[in-house]
């Protein structure tokens, strides 16, 4: 059996993130040319497929666990969080 987590769609998860944690998306879908200009960016970045967002918060960032509970993989960086939707396949 193949389970997919989370049940939330990408747009719904981002909406909940914004509403609940006063998050603003600063980067979502990137062109390869723009991505290549960013220091430390990967040529295989999930941003190139629209499968990652970078966000900042109006206040302190929420605990990573709260974001994981919305279904995000979280990488906390210096000035923003990098988020991707977690997709799990379970036997």
How would you explain this protein's 3D organization?
The protein has 91 residues and is of the alpha+beta class. It has a single domain, classed as Threonyl-tRNA Synthetase, Chain A, domain 2. It has helices at residues 10-21, 32-37, 64-69; strands at 23-27, 52-57, 72-76, 81-85. The model is unreliable at 1-6 (pLDDT under 50).
Note the main attributes of this structure:
91 residues, alpha+beta, Threonyl-tRNA Synthetase, Chain A, domain 2, four-stranded antiparallel β-sheet, 3 helices, 26% helix, 23% strand, globular, disordered N terminus
Describe this structure in a few short sentences:
This protein has 91 residues and is of the alpha+beta class. It is built from three helices and four strands.
Distance between the termini: 6 Å
**What spatial form do the alpha-carbon principal axes imply?**
globular
Q: Tell me, what is the CATH class?
A: Alpha Beta
**Strand fraction band?**
15-25%
Helix count? Answer: 3
> Can you list the strand order of the major beta sheet?
1-2-4-3
**Helix share of residues?**
25-40%
CATH architecture title:
2-Layer Sandwich
The H/E string reads HEHEHEE
Instruction: Enter the CATH topology name.
Output: Threonyl-tRNA Synthetase, Chain A, domain 2
Mean pLDDT: 87
Radius of gyration: 14 Å
Structural class of the secondary elements?
A: alpha+beta
How many extended strands? Answer: 4
The parts where pLDDT drops under 50 for at least 5 residues are: 1-6
Number of separate structural domains: 1
Biggest sheet character:
4 strands, antiparallel
């Amino acid at each position: 059996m193949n389970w997919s987590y989370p049940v939330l769609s990408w747009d719904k998860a981002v909406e909940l993130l914004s509403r609940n944690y006063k998050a603003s998306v600063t980067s979502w879908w990137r062109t390869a040319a723009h991505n290549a200009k960013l220091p430390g960016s990967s040529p295989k970045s999930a941003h190139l497929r629209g499968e990652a967002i970078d966000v900042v918060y109006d206040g302190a960032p929420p605990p990573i666990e709260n974001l994981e509970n919305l279904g995000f993989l979280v990488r906390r960086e210096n000035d923003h969080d990098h988020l991707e939707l977690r997709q799990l396949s379970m036997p």
